[in-house]
Amino acid sequence: MAPTRHTIVALVEDKPGVLNRVASLFRRRGFNIESIAVGHSELPQLSRMTIVVDGTVTSVEQVRKQLEKVVEMVKVSDITPDDIVARELALVKIKTTSATRGDIIEIVDIFRANIVDVALDSVTVEVTGDEEKVDSLINLLRNFGIKEIARTGRVAMTRGGTAPLAGE
Amino acid sequence: MKMTGAQILCEGLTREGVEVIFGFPGGVVLPLYDTLPHYPQLRHVLVRHEQGAAHAADGYARATGKVGVCLATSGPGATNLVTGIANAYLDSSPMVAITGQVARPLIGKDAFQEIDITGITLPITKHNYLVPDAASMARIVKEAFYLARTGRPGPVLIDVPRDVFVEQAEFHYPNQVKLPGYRPTLKGHPEQVKKAAKLLNEAQQPVLLAGRGIIISGACDELRYLAETAQIPVVTTLLGIGCFPESHALSYGMLGMHGMAYANLAINGADVILAIGMRFDDRATGKVAGFAPRAKIIHVDIDPAEIGKNVRVDIPIVGDARTVLKELNKLAAPAQHMDWVRQLDDWRKEHPSTVIRDCEELLPQYVIRQIYEVTQGRATIVTGVGQNQMWSAQHYFYERPNSLISSGGLGTMGFELPAAMGAKIGRPDEPVWCVAGDGGFQMTIQELATIVQEKAAVKIAIINNGYLGMVRQWQELFYGKRYVATPLTCPDFVRIAEAYCISALRVRQKAEVAPAIEQAMADPGPFLIDFMVAPEENVYPMVPPGASLVELVEDPGKAARVAPDSAKLPVSDM
Ligand SMILES: Cc1ncc(C[n+]2csc(CCOP(=O)(O)OP(=O)(O)O)c2C)c(N)n1
Ligand SMILES: [Mg+2]
Fold first, then answer.
1. Which residue, B96, B100, B415, B427, is the most exposed by fewest CB within 10 angstroms?
2. ipTM for the predicted complex
3. Cα(B93) to centroid of ligand 1, in Å?
4. How far is the CA of B463 from the centre of ligand 2 (A)?
5. Ligand whose nearest atom lies closest to the CA of B468
6. Which residues contact B322 (CB under 8 A, 6 or more apart)?
7. What's this model's pTM, rounded to 2 decimal places?
C-alpha cells in the first residue's frame, strides 16, 4: 500500500505537555509530521489540532488509535476521506524596488492576498488558501526575491453540518 | 483542613489502599520521608537500587492484583526506575511511580539532580504528571491510581517538586475523576459478539488463545466455562500462563518461539481462533505471514490499538475480557469437537514437549520439574529472562492466575529477584520461588539485603550454567558456536548468600535436588540454592527467528535452521 497524505483533526485538553505527547507519538511510530497547527476550539479548555502526515491507511489508523490512548485526547479523527475545507495562512516578505512594487501588487490582487506591511525595500504579503494556492503565489513571488516565509500549516474542517469532533 | 503536599500525597495513598511502598530516599524527597512515619499503615521497603523498587512494585502488583507503588528521588533515583517502569508498561502492570523533582524555581535550570523524568518516561508510562502545586496533589493522586488500574493497566508516574511537598493546601480528596479523554470500552459491541459466537459455533477446529488480559480482568472462570461448554482447546501466551489450569485436559500450554510443539501445531491447524487479552507479540506469532494460515481470527482486547496491529483480524471486539466472555458464553453452543481434540492429543503424544531427557547430568529442566514436584505446584514462580525463564514456563505446571510472574514484553534480566521479593511481600503466606539466571541474578543481586532486612522468605534457585545461556544458545545455533561475551565467571553464590546471612546450598547431583528444595521449603527464612546445571543445554522446542510456528525444531540432536530471509523479517532480536 502506498503512503498518501492524511489530515487528522483532534480535540485535546488544554494542559501542559499535550503537544509533546502527540508529536512524540508520531515520531515513535515512524511518522514525519508535515504540519501541525494548534489553537483554541469552540469549547473552553479544549484545543484543536490539525495534523498532516504521510502514511498508508493502516499505519495512520494505527497511529490514530495510539493517539486515542493519550489521556488528554478527547477525540481524534482522520478526516482525509471526508469532503473537507482546508486552509493555511502564510506571511511572505518580498524585496521590492519602485520598479517591481506595481507588479507585486498586481499578483497579490489576483490571488486575493493582502499587503500587510510596506517598507522602502520590502513588502509583506498575507495569503490564505489551500496549500496549492499558497504554493503558487510563493512561486510567483520568488522572482522578486523572498526574504522570509512563515506558514501556519493546514487547519481543516469537514464541509456541511457534520462535526466529527463535536460532543457525543 | 490545610495540609502539606507530602501529607496530601500520603492521605491519597492510604485512601487508594496502598500498604507497601518500595523506595529509596534522597534530597528532594526528604519532606515526604519525614511525613511517612505519621502514616504507619504505609509500609516502606528500603530497596538497594531503585530498579529493584520498580520491579518489586511490579511483582507485588502481579501477585496481588493491586497497584504497586515505588518511590525515588530526583535525577539518578528517577532514571534508575526507568527500566522497571518500561517493564511494567510492556506487561500492563498497574503501578504508580513517585519521583521527587527539584523545587519549582529551579526547574529548567539544570539544577543539582534535576532530570526531566516526565519527558524521559513519556513513551513508557500510561500517563505522567509533574505536580504544579500542592492544591493539585489530591486530584493527581486520584487520577494516577485510577489510570493505573483501569482499562489496560499500566504505570503512571507522579513527579513532585521539592517545594510542593512542603507547600500547604486545603485537603479535599475527590470521589471521582474527571478525565474526558479517558473512557475505556468495557462492553463488546453486541453485533460483533454475535458474529463471533456464530463463527465459533460453526468452527470445526477452534482454539482459544488466552493472554494476560484474562488474568487482569478476572475472566479465568468465564474462559473455562467457554472451553468446557464447547470443548475448545486452550493455548496461552507466556504471560497468559495460569489463566487456565495446565492440568486440564483442554490445556495445550504456551505457544510461541519456545512454546509447546502441540500448541503451535494447534494454532497452525485451527480454523477459528478466539484470541483474548493478548497482543500477538512477535515472540508468540513467529513469522506473521505464516501465522494461523487457515484460521479466521476473533480478537478481543480492551486496547483498540492492539487490534489489527500485528495480524489480520476477521472479527475485532474492543472490550474487557470478562465482560465480553460473559456475553459470548450466553451464545456459545455446546459442542464436542472430538476429532479436533483427538488430533491435538495425538500431537501431544507425538511431540511431548514437556518430557525431560533421562541422563546422568543435572539438567536445568529437571531442577524446575523438581521444584514443581516438591512445591506440589503451589508456589509462585518468578523468573529471570533467558533459558531459565523458558524452562520455568515449560517444566513447571501452573494452575492459578499469576502463579508465573515473568518479564514478557521487555525481557528484563534482573527482574527475578526484586520481583520475587515484591511478590512475597504481597503474598507472605505463599511459597515464592525466584528462578534466576546466573547472569540476570547478578544484575540485581543487591536486593538480597532487602530480602533479609524485610524478612521476606523468598526461595532462590539459581540456574547456574556459567553462561548468558539464551544468547549462547543463539550463538551455538546461528553464529557458528562462537561464544563471544557469553561465558560468565560467577562468584561463589553460596558464600555470597552467606555474607548476606541467607542460608544456602550448592547442588551438583540429581539426587541432591529434591532434598535441597525440601530443606529450602522447611527453612522459615530466605534460602538460596545454586544449581550447577549442564552448561550447554538448549531450550526446545524452538521456532528459529524468522520462521513460522510450524517450523519449530524439537530434536536436540538436530541443529535449528535459520530462515534464509530472517534478517529482513520484522522479528526483534534478543
Ligand atoms: C537487561 C538485559 N540485558 C540483556 C539482555 C539480553 N539477554 C537475553 S537472555 C540473556 C542471557 C541471560 O543469561 P542468564 O541470566 O544467565 O540466563 P540463562 O539464559 O543462562 O538462563 C541475555 C543477555 C536482556 N534480556 N536483558
Ligand atoms: Mg545463565
1. B427
2. 0.90
3. 21
4. 6
5. 1
6. B217, B218, B219, B222
7. 0.95
